[in-house]
Write a structure and sequence with these properties.
The longest helix is centred in the first third of the chain and has 67 residues, at 7-73. By secondary structure, this protein is mostly helical. It has one domain. It is built from 3 helices and no strands. It is rod-shaped.
């Protein structure tokens, strides 16, 4: 069938076929890149922000422990240390409110709820 066609038509047909294949590949790539952008935003908002908030809570607890020890060991600065400890615990409450608004998966939500319960008892 192709033996009876002229070389020019064969070349044009080959180029058209190559262009069609390139368009299909670029369309698939564009779809996956836009999907990748959505997944990247989701990963940032739903996974990285909670990690950042947990880091803030961790540093607040470290500061609270330091303030508590300082309040016990240095009686002259007890009032300042206790005031600082209260403000740190207030910042932990603020971070808990922020994390509570985030979209956590079931396992993360379960761990977070157990933390909230333990923190309220703390």
């Amino acid at each position: 069938m192709l033996e009876n066609m002229k070389i020019g038509k064969k070349l044009i047909g080959g180029f058209i076929l190559t262009i069609i294949i390139m368009l299909i590949i670029s369309g698939i790539g564009f779809i996956f890149i836009s999907n990748l952008a959505l997944k990247s935003d989701e990963m940032y908002n739903d996974r990285l922000i909670p990690i950042q908030q947990i880091g803030v809570i961790n540093s607040a607890f470290t500061q609270f422990r330091g303030d508590a020890y300082k309040g016990m060991l240095v009686p002259e600065e007890r009032t300042v240390s206790l005031d600082s400890a209260e403000s740190v615990l207030a910042s932990v409450n603020d971070q808990i409110v922020v994390i509570d608004k985030l979209n956590l998966n079931a396992e993360e939500r379960k761990v977070f709820e157990s933390f909230k319960t333990a923190f309220q008892e703390y």
